[in-house]
């Protein structure tokens, strides 16, 4: 299957008000990684300084870089398809949900980049990789003065913490709104991210070719 037919297949789900299994897979895999990463980051911040903490941050950094790699693939994928339309785009709900979703996409890059800046100013030469597989370099900050490295560390730590907080607060808002849609509005918003049923629209790949012949 080439990219064009893959997109057409995914659009079949979108026309039924659903995310495709690719969108659903990206969503829940990345949501799980973000939950873990936020919890583990707070745990590491609380650990006393020492070898375990640095090793822990190495794992933290590698999972964060994996989130950035997955986020790039997901962003590309999302830019190719229209997505399901279950909420009026110009309504308050539509704008608010888009704002939160866009923020999550920003955080998939801004957290790893600010983390990478911090990591590159830390002493020690533990290597980095994406998911423990693809080697990832440090920024060449060891050539900078100690003062400048310290300033960079402080700015990056401040940015990391702000983005962590905004994301931590945005997640219950996002998940809560999805549950509210399910319980109160009883619409397709939450099922769109859970339902993996195949497309059953006439003319869509994997469906009967026209309504009449399906009878
Ligand atoms: C989506 C990815 C990430 C999430 C959700 C995340 C989350 C967190 C959290 C919750 C903390 C503790 C609170 C804080 O001190 O800010 C933290 C700290 C930290 N993170 Fe991340 N992080 C991510 C990616 C990264 C990456 C890719 C790196 C390194 C390459 C990194 C390096 C660090 C460092 C060095 C700290 C310690 C900051 C300090 O002690 O001031 N993070 N992160
Ligand atoms: C239990 C927790 C969660 C629930 C119930 C949930 C539910 C949903 C639902 C129903 C949608 C579709 C909304 C629509 O199309 O209007 C959605 C989209 C989205 N969610 Fe979540 N979500 C959860 C956690 C997360 C987390 C932790 C993140 C990342 C930090 C996240 C990021 C996104 C993004 C970026 C989209 C937009 C999808 C796209 O078009 O690419 N979600 N979520």
From TrEMBL:
<feature type="transmembrane region" description="Helical">
    <location>
        <begin position="24"/>
        <end position="45"/>
    </location>
</feature>
<keyword id="KW-1003">Cell membrane</keyword>
<keyword id="KW-0812">Transmembrane</keyword>
<dbReference type="Pfam" id="PF01292">
    <property type="entry name" value="Ni_hydr_CYTB"/>
</dbReference>
<keyword id="KW-0249">Electron transport</keyword>
<keyword id="KW-0408">Iron</keyword>
<dbReference type="InterPro" id="IPR052168">
    <property type="entry name" value="Cytochrome_b561_oxidase"/>
</dbReference>
<keyword id="KW-0813">Transport</keyword>
<dbReference type="InterPro" id="IPR016174">
    <property type="entry name" value="Di-haem_cyt_TM"/>
</dbReference>
<comment type="similarity">
    <text>Belongs to the cytochrome b561 family.</text>
</comment>
<protein>
    <submittedName>
        <fullName>Cytochrome b/b6 domain-containing protein</fullName>
    </submittedName>
</protein>
<feature type="transmembrane region" description="Helical">
    <location>
        <begin position="102"/>
        <end position="119"/>
    </location>
</feature>
<feature type="transmembrane region" description="Helical">
    <location>
        <begin position="57"/>
        <end position="77"/>
    </location>
</feature>
<keyword id="KW-1133">Transmembrane helix</keyword>
<feature type="transmembrane region" description="Helical">
    <location>
        <begin position="162"/>
        <end position="184"/>
    </location>
</feature>
<dbReference type="InterPro" id="IPR011577">
    <property type="entry name" value="Cyt_b561_bac/Ni-Hgenase"/>
</dbReference>
<keyword id="KW-0349">Heme</keyword>
<feature type="domain" description="Cytochrome b561 bacterial/Ni-hydrogenase">
    <location>
        <begin position="20"/>
        <end position="194"/>
    </location>
</feature>
<keyword id="KW-0472">Membrane</keyword>
<keyword id="KW-0479">Metal-binding</keyword>
């Amino acid at each position: 299957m080439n990219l064009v037919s893959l997109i057409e297949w995914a659009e079949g789900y979108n026309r039924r008000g659903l995310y495709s299994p690719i969108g659903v897979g990206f969503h829940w895999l990345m949501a799980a990684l973000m939950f873990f990463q936020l919890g583990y980051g707070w745990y590491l911040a609380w650990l006393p300084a020492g070898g375990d903490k640095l090793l822990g941050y190495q794992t933290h950094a590698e999972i964060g870089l994996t989130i950035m790699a997955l986020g790039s693939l997901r962003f590309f994928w999302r830019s190719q398809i229209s997505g399901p339309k279950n909420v009026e785009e110009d309504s308050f709900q539509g704008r608010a949900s888009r704002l939160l979703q866009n923020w999550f996409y920003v955080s998939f890059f801004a957290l790893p980049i600010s983390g990478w800046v911090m990591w590159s100013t830390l002493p020690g030469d533990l290597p980095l990789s994406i998911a423990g597989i693809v080697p990832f370099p440090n920024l060449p900050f060891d050539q900078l003065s100690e003062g400048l490295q310290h300033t960079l560390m402080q700015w990056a730590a401040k940015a990391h913490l702000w983005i962590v907080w905004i994301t931590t607060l945005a997640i219950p808002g996002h998940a809560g709104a999805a549950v509210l849609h399910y319980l109160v509005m009883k619409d397709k918003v939450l099922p769109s991210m859970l339902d993996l049923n195949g497309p059953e629209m006439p003319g869509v790949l994997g469906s009967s070719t026209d309504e009449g012949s399906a009878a």
